[in-house]
Predict the structure.
Amino acid sequence: MLHITMIGCGAIGVAVLELLEHDQHMQVDTVIASPGSEALVRQRLARLRRPPQVLTGLAADARPDLLLECAGHRAVEQHVLPALERGIPCLVVSVGALSEAGLVERLEAAAARGDTRIELLPGAIGAIDALSAARVGGLDSVEYTGRKPARAWKDTPAEQACALDSLREATVIFQGSAREAARLYPKNANVAATLSLAGLGLDRTWVTLVADPHSEDNVHQVKARGTFGGFEISLRGKPLQANPKTSALTVYSVVRALGNHAHAISI
């Protein structure tokens, strides 16, 4: 049995817990919630057959088999770094947090001191294995275009770029490096950061973000060129019903990664 502690319990966390309900090989024993939100989180989890314990921090003597972060960028520094220092392997959903200067190096150092490792989950995007392999031979360019329904860009800098409620056609709301995209759109740009870390880095990955009033899907398009040749992929993912900023595939990516740790065969 794989014993898991989950950081955060928003739309992604709840969906993951629901999918794990009947898996006999793993169990989320504890959910770490932000102080003051414990009652709300317990309410969200009440319908589960095996609701986990809700705490506001990892107990000093706690040694879960895995710590899963799905709480947002601040949680990486607040919870993942100290867990790595204690030798607890970590899975991270909020990859965009690693656009912060120096954080990758701090995570690597903490994992080395704890003699453990950190795994960055691909989330809503595919072909990360191909991109990482292509980097070995040499990459020339990586371009990413993220197209989402206009409502998915609410409460972001896109509201200053255009009137989202009255858009009549697809509109580019950002063009620039993956580092800048992750800084300005942290809840929407995990994919760009993931591609960057697998490929050419945050400063050499070109990102275009689009608000499309006619789309009901989150569309991710990647073009890569290098010594290996080239590839183009397009993924059309349904938004998570509880949070249109997130693709449902992100939840499935988390469950797959946990399964690879818990089950006899991984792929």
Remarks:
- The mean pLDDT is 91.
- The longest strand covers residues 139-149.
- The two ends are 19 Å apart (CA to CA).
